[in-house]
Automatic annotation (TrEMBL), chains A, B:
Assigned GO CC terms: cytoplasm
Protein name: Histidine--tRNA ligase
UniProt catalytic activity: tRNA(His) + L-histidine + ATP = L-histidyl-tRNA(His) + AMP + diphosphate + H(+)
GO molecular function per UniProt: ATP binding; histidine-tRNA ligase activity
Lineage of producing organism: Bacteria, Bacillati, Actinomycetota, Actinomycetes, Micromonosporales
SUPFAM superfamilies, alphabetized: Class II aaRS ABD-related, Class II aaRS and biotin synthetases
Biological processes, Gene Ontology terms: histidyl-tRNA aminoacylation
């Protein structure tokens, strides 16, 4: 029986997912990110070390575990916390700045809902450095994502960015001291609306009515260019951290305008919950599917990884692959041209000819053409049906000479297994937007 | 800290692993296997449904789990049991015979040792059918594996095969009734030697001394051709199941001799523990690393998947990717030509030129050349050092005109980012045997 929150795709959907992952991975590598996988488990104290977490952790215990049970282990709930642990643990063996990508399952024991799973696939890129990480990496992250997702037959993505320093500096400049609580309340803006946010800021964050209004006003600012900074300054609040944050945010927006116009928008309501971010934060909406929330998020974290006096600041972003595909699959928004990788089915006239048919298949495979031999000798009509049900485009008939039939058009031609080539478009299953 | 049994590869090793997985996956697809992933968890009763299991299961529970806890879930310990469950659950949506491959992590809470992990990666292929599965699929499995692994820079593999029907028929023909116990004892042959096996057969399986000797004699038979069948028949035991098993085993051996000479050996001591196999069984040794045991195993299972009156017999084989690579990494038997995917580092003379350098990098990436821009403006010597430490072969110098330097040979030439192409051998990191 299906288990709520643990999605399983049928093979055609998995073929689409693989195509997405291939594109993502190839793009990450084009930007010089090295591959990494970390173990699926971490000690519970590593998972909880970043203070209060809203992520529900799955703990492991062995069915026949004795009293010698090791430290409590839990499944990781993201790829950033394990990555930070890995960097500290292996700092002596890595070259800094260290650029890595990581595509793995993560687990969260939360209530499942559409596009929210308990087991799901994430695709992360991060750059970390020892001591200090140059800011230009903050501008690079969204460009890599734009490049990776832009090459896929999915709706256009729009990356929304903000900077924690802008919010914290602004709140501080306003005279509010519990900036974490302000952020926590402002983060609910889309869910509960501005009136309730104002109310809660007054009730829980020590804000006056006019301070609360200013916070809501800040959060309403959004622009595709550096004009957002003027809008913030018009609010009349000054603070050195605010200035620093605005300068950083302007740099990211301007770099994106040059290299990928239309990809990015500065949106000052983006807060990214209570995660470990210290500066730039990213969220990403899929055009037409905005109500499902962010499908790709991340940010700058200056204090996540450290060991003694060594500090490893980083910046990263994570594509929620399962979430994105779950949403698109739910609306039949992606299609694949066949249900199997197979391009050619070799028909089997009689069981005695199997060895010869296997040789034909081997010759086709040697040239990169995915080929199956029919499961049993049968009338050709039945073999064509086998191919048709799977969307296999070609059936190969042994004979003197061999022939190959495009079962979509019905066209049948003489062919030699050592030279025949299908059109490039038929070689692999094609993934398209529906 | 490292956790025993949960291996983590450094990026160069992960690059090697990915190259192996790419080859394996491409080969599986060339044979028409469709991709599948199943969830990592199964209900405990599914995991334990195949009777006594020696696999130690990891159970999950939520850190903040309440009293509404769902059925007990455990991490899967192989990919065959989840696959069988998936087939039964989705039979109405699949086309049979159903060929799928599945490359995923599995978990076993056993004592770790070299090449034996608690978390490890498996790459499986299986074919299942409704009601009956033609035997020729048993002959296909080892050929696919030979093709997949044969294209990698690893030691030659040798697939050992046997057939449960041969063993059970032989034991029955000998007059032994507890054939499962006989198999269990014979399975220890390599570990404890023939004398102890004989002893234990007498002590625990109700065998006379001469029956026990015959069992050990059967297990000693091995041949690369059909001659093993004559050797078995010379032992003078007759039984219909034995005959059926011998005929099947001969078919697999002969098909391999035709399509992949030297790949396969019939070895009648192969038992595959107490798993769910009912006929053909496979194990695979890596030449020179035989003492580490099988790196690729599987077999025919006629009764694993069923639902009411529906039966889904199958045959499959599973590459122990982590096990194989762990052994080879432990002996530095595999190398990769650089530590990052990057082919070109664009040097940055001054920070003000970053936008221009980013454009150069973008032009190279558009043509599939993995490129990074230097992290900071620095003297060229320092930038060459950055490339050298990572094994990046080329450094690009902006100028009038631009030049590109092969830092291995020192050769530097004029170049245009929209046309320059590295030699094909440098485009991607090369994986070689050491």
């Amino acid at each position: 029986m299906p288990i709520s929150g643990f999605p399983e795709w049928l093979p055609p959907q998995r073929m689409i997912e693989q195509r997405v992952l291939d594109r993502v991975r190839t793009t990450f590598e084009l930007y010089g990110f090295a591959p990494l996988e970390t173990r699926s488990v971490e000690p519970l104290d590593t998972l909880l070390s970043k203070g209060e977490t809203s992520k529900e952790v799955y703990l492991l215990h062995r069915l026949q575990g004795g009293t010698d049970e090791e430290d409590q282990l839990g499944l990781h709930f993201d790829l950033t916390v394990p990555f930070a642990r890995f960097v500290v643990e292996n700092a002596g063996k890595l070259q800094f700045p260290f650029r890595r990508y990581q595509i793995q399952k993560v687990w969260r024991g939360e209530r499942p809902q559409e596009g929210r799973y308990r087991e799901f696939l994430q695709a992360d890129i991060d750059v970390v450095n020892r001591d200090n990480l140059p800011f230009h990496y903050d501008t690079e992250m969204p460009l890599v994502i734009g490049d990776a997702l832009g090459g896929l037959p999915i709706p256009r993505v729009r990356i929304q960015i903000n900077n924690r320093k802008v919010c914290e500096g602004f709140y501080r400049g306003l005279g509010l001291s519990d900036t974490a609580q302000v952020l926590r309340v402002v983060d609910k803006l889309d869910k509960i609306g501005p009136d309730k946010v104002t109310e809660q800021l007054v009730a829980t964050a020590g804000a006056t009515r006019s301070q609360a209004d200013a916070c809501v006003e800040l959060a309403s600012i959004s622009a595709e260019d550096a004009s957002f900074a003027d809008a913030v300054r018009k609010l009349g609040i000054t603070d050195p951290l605010l200035d620093e944050g605005l300068d950083e945010l302007v740099r990211v927006v301007e770099a994106a305008r040059e290299h990928a116009p239309g990809l990015l928008v500065a949106d000052l309501k983006i807060a990214r919950g209570l995660d470990y971010y210290t500066g730039t934060v990213y969220e990403t909406l899929l055009t037409g599917y905005e109500r499902f929330g962010s499908i790709c998020s991340g940010g700058r974290y200056d204090n996540l990884a450290s060991s003694g006096n060594d500090r490893f600041p980083g910046v990263g972003i994570s594509i929620g692959v399962s979430r994105m595909l779950g949403i698109l699959f739910g609306r039949q928004a992606l299609e694949v041209s066949r249900k199997v990788p197979t391009c050619v089915l070799v028909a089997l006239p009689q069981e005695e000819q199997r060895a010869a048919c296997d040789r034909t298949a081997a010759a086709l495979r040697r040239r990169g053409i995915a080929t199956e031999v029919a499961p049993a000798a049968a009338k050709f009509g039945k073999q064509i049906q086998y191919a048709d049900r799977r969307g296999i485009p070609y059936v190969w008939f042994p004979g003197e000479p061999d022939t190959v039939k495009d079962i979509r058009s019905g066209e049948q031609v003489e062919a030699d297994a050592t030279t025949w080539q299908p059109p490039a478009a038929d070689l692999h299953p094609a993934v398209t937007g529906a």
